[in-house]
Every structure is written in structure tokens, then in C-alpha cells.
Amino acid sequence: MLRRPTFLLLVLVSAGALAGSGVARAALSPESVDAAHLLALGRLPDAAERERTSTADHPTFAHLVNELGQSVRRDKALAAATDARARRDALGTTEAQAGSAEVASGGLDYTSRLRRHLDHLKADPAAYRAVIDRAYHRVVQRTPYDIEYDYWAARDPLPFFLLCACIENWAVRNQPGLMSTTGTPSIDTNSRHLTAVRVPPTVADDVRTVLGRPARAEDPHGLASGRVVLSAGASAVVSIGGIHVVAVGAEARP
Fold first, then answer.
1. Rounded to whole angstroms, how far apart are CA atoms 247 and 159?
2. Mind listing the pLDDT tens digit for each residue in 69-114?
3. In angstroms, rounded to a whole number, what is the distance separating the alpha carbons of residues 73 and 245?
């Protein structure tokens, strides 16, 4: 029978060996893998990417997001696809817009590109008005009313895909009247305009850190108000049901 000090020493040595071999490190959850791809590439991983991610050594969520971002820098085709996806999701078109932020160079990941487009829209109200036009025509097949332009202009710009999801949710809630857009911008996580991944609170905390958002306990737009949409520019958007969700634009255009 081992004496207690000897037993404890063996336990510590065994634990150290497991940690050194990587066995003790828990793999990132499937939700984390999906969320990281959405933030870095603007899309979900394919089967091969899931396989590579599951076998690679990614100690943290932030490490995986950074590694995916570096892959954009190294791969010109991936960079071009990421740029087109960010442009489409931010502006509602992949065509270059006059005065639009040029973000194709520099190896920027999807979220960084999306943020640059949002910065441009904030500085150019006419450009944002055009995005609002596209969103209303996409969702309710009409031109926005003046009061609706004012409604959105009073808030920080949203990317096109979130505008569409918010307008869709408003339209569903206000059938058959469909007067003018009012209330708090809100989305249904099942919106046809989104590619969305529901994540548990622990993964949501990792995403918040990468996005530079405050921790839940410190976020004025946090759980108390149901604002748990995790995407660039989405801090004032409510997720119906208080669901933590990481979202980008839908792959198959509605």
C-alpha cells in the first residue's frame, strides 16, 4: 500500500504527463468551432475544415479565430471570398460602391472587413440610406418611408443582413397592418437572412472577448435587455428569447 505522500506525488506526475501530451486539454466545442469560422471567414466550416480543426491544437477560442484570420492573409482566393462576403453582408451587394471602404488588402478577416464597411456607412449617411433601401426592397418589396429612414438614422448603422433580419421580424409581428417600422430592433435567430449559430453562455463570453464587447456582467446591453446578438455592429439588436447567437448573412440569398 502506497503511503499518502508517495501517492500524491504519483498523481501529480501523471497529471503533468497528461497535460504535456495534450490529453488533458479539452477540445473546443462544435459551437466554438462554428462561431470562430463565422467571425473570421463569415461562413460555417466545411467538412474538411471541421476535421482539421478537431485535430489541430487550439488552446483557446481566440487562438482559433486568430489562426483562421492568418489563413485569410496567406490565401489570396480565401481573402477575395471573405472580402466579397463582408461586402455583401454589409452593403447588400458585392459590387464596389463609390467611396466604399477598400478592405481587400492587408489580410483582414471577415469581422474586421465588416467593421470597416460599418465605419464608412456611419461617416456617409447617403451610403447607409442606400443600404436601408436595399433591405426594405429585399424584405417587404417597397421603399422605406421617411419616418423609417429617420428611425434607422437615429441608431448606429447595422450591416445589411441584420437590417433585413430586423425588418423581417418587425413585419411578422405587425401583420397585416404593416404601418412603419417602430420598436426595438430585434431578430429571430431562425431568420432566412441569417447564418446563425446558437452558443451557450460560456462560448458567448469567448466571442464577446474577441469582439471587444464588455463581459455580460458589465454590458449595458447585456442579458437584462436580451441583447445577445454577437456580431460586428449588433450590440443594440435584441435576440428574441434572449438566445446567445453568432450571426452573419445567409449563404443562400433569400
1. 11
2. 999 999 999 999 999 999 999 999 987 665 555 544 556 999 999 9
3. 27
168-192: pLDDT as tens digits: 998 887 765 556 677 789 999 999 9
| E strand or H helix that includes residue 187 | strand 186-187
Question: Is residue 198 helix, strand or coil?
Answer: strand
How many residues would you count in the chain?
Answer: 254
Count of other CB atoms within 10 angstroms of residue 135: 25
Residue partners of 185: CB distance under 8 A and separation at least 6: 155, 158, 162, 166, 236, 237, 238
First CA to last CA distance, the chain? 69
Q: In this predicted structure, what is the pLDDT of residue 132?
A: 97
pTM of the model: 0.83
Burial 88-110 (b: 16+ CB within 10 A, else e): bbbbbeeeebeebbebbeebbbb
What's the one-letter identity of residue 114?
L
Q: How far apart are CA 14 and CA 53, in angstroms?
A: 27
Question: Nine-digit cell at 125?
Answer: 449617411
**Which ranges of 59-159 would DSSP assign to H, the alpha helix?**
61-74, 76-91, 110-123, 125-140, 146-153
